C-alpha cells in the first residue's frame, strides 16, 4: 500500500497516546516508552506497503509492532521497581536516607500526556485504574512475556488466540502465562481493590485536606488522613515506611527540618492525584523539592510515592520555583 508521509502521520496520529501508555506499562519508564513509540512508528512506516487491512485493523497492527519492540528492549533492561519492591520497610525514621544509585527507578506517568477526550483509550485505561503506580510497579515482578500477556489480555481485552498469534505461541500457553501473572500480582498484594479509585470528589477532598496539613506542618491532622497501614516511599532512596506511626515519625523529622516553609501545587499522575511540593530556602524562595503521587481510599491516603528526580520534574513540566507572592 503506497502512502505519503503526511498521510501516514494522519492515520497513526489517533493511536500515539495509547501506544505510549502501552509501552509505558511494559517498561515502567516514560522516556523509554517515548523512544520505543518512535521506533514502532518508524518500523510501521517502513513496512506499511505490506500492511493488509483485511487481516488486522491499523490499531491491532501497531500494537503488534509496539509489543515486539518493547519485548526486544526488555531483554536488555533491568526491571524498574519502587523501594517497597526491594526489601522490607525501614524501622528507623531518624536514620540516614540511603540512595539507590544503581537502581533504574519506576517513573510516574503525567496525566497531561493522556489527552482530554473521555473516549480516548488512554483516558479510559486511566479511569479504570489500569495505569496506577501500584499496578505498573507490580508488573515489574513479571517476566517480560507474562507482562505482555497480562496487558494484552486483561487491559486491552485481546483474545488468547490474538495474543498467541502475536507471541508465536499457543492459546493454551497464553492462558497459562496469564494465570501465572495474575497469581504473581496477588502474591505482591495487587488486587482489584488496589486498582480502583474512590469518586473524584471524595478523593480530591481528602487530598485537599492532606495538602493543608502538609503546608502547615500539622502532623496531627496529617496522621488523621492516613490509613493504619499507609505506605511512604521515596525513590531514589531505598528507605520506605509502612504504617501510620512510622509514616508520621518520618514526617515529624521532615517538618522539624523544613518548618512551615512548605507549599504544594496540584497535578496528576497515573490517573491518581498528585502534588508538587516546594520548600522555602534561606532567601525565602520556594524551590521544587518533590513530586508526590497519592493512592486514596474512600476515607484516607493509603500510599504516598515521593519522587525526587530532575527527569521526573521535567516530565511533569514543574516550575523550579514559585512566585514570591505565594509565600
Essential attributes:
7 strands, Butyryl-CoA Dehydrogenase, subunit A, domain 3, 15% strand, Nuclear Transport Factor 2, Chain: A, alpha+beta, 327 residues
State the gist of this model.
With 327 residues, the chain is of the alpha+beta class. The chain contains 14 helices and 7 strands. Helix 2 crosses helix 3 and helix 8 packs across helix 9.
Verbal overview:
There is one protein chain. With 327 residues, this protein is α+β, with helices and mostly antiparallel strands. It is 47% helix and 15% strand. Strands 1, 2, 3, 4, 5, 6 and 7 form a seven-stranded mixed sheet that branches. Helix 2 (16-27) packs across helix 3 and helix 8 (160-167) crosses helix 9. It starts with a helix and ends in a 5-residue tail after the last strand. The model has no long low-confidence stretch (mean pLDDT 91).
